[in-house]
Please model this.
Amino acid sequence: MSNTLMDTNFHFTGQKAIYKGKVREVYTLENDILVMIATDRLSAFDVVMPKGIPYKGQILNQIATKMMQATEDIVPNWLMATPDANVAVGKACEPFKVEMVIRGYLSGHAAREYKAGKRILCGEPMPEGMKENDKFPEPIITPATKAEKGDHDEDISKGEILNRGIVSKTDYEVLEKYTRALFQRGTEIAAKRGLILVDTKYEFGKTKDGEIVLIDEIHTPDSSRYFYAEGYKERQANGETQKQLSKEFVRQWLISNGFQGLEGQIVPEMSDAYVESVSERYIELYESIMGEAFEKADVSSIQERIGQSISSYLNSI
Model:
């Protein structure tokens, strides 16, 4: 088993606060600088699993940062530098309290709602006569309120967001515009890799200067669903399950072992062999999405490596 990064407790010069999410740990420093560390923690059904996945943090961080660099010409983002394989440094922002979910296909949550008889999701109509994994005539934006720690995100419509004053009308129109532009670019990038970007979520924040920027992860297997393009139409025509790239395989394993994050349920034992298999699958996801070989960072002293990389960068700016 490789060393995994499950938790950090650094003290950087000018440090003001630490926020620990399910997977990422964010250090707020003076001069409006954020240091975001992607750990190897694995979250499913809003529950953090007891064992980390080797290289998962590196994989998520590298996909997200490379995708931000590939979209910075159409949407500004928070990123300043990536001083370490697991680390991104950027501008501090006030996050919007909504996640901008965009769906090109009737999959996942949308498909479950559709099967339950719903034809409107977050105020967006879903046409009659669709099968699971069919393509929507046009991508639909189905926002979710950002959950406090431990709670599930909830669907919300544009109308509710504006009526409750969660986001102003002017700002929301920018979020919509950016979401559609990012999804279009992500779709084009995926197509070059023989993939279909099915659905994804984007998060945005506002800088002290009032600029709306993209934050957090983008187009990773944790935040997005991909299908293999080859054979998609045939599988749909035959009513077969689509081959997909996402962490859905983890959810399915948990479900098959009697866990869906419900009260009273116990997380199943994750053997070392299973943990290694999940790590190998994440590496496969990286290589498929990025179209390049994954290079493992040195994890012999992972905490020390990350701490030195961050300190060195901070001293240089």
Q: What stands out?
A: The mean pLDDT is 94. The chain is about 30% helix and 25% strand. Helices lie at 56-69, 108-115, 158-163, 169-192, 232-237, 248-256, 272-290, 302-316. The first strand starts at residue 15 and ends at 20.
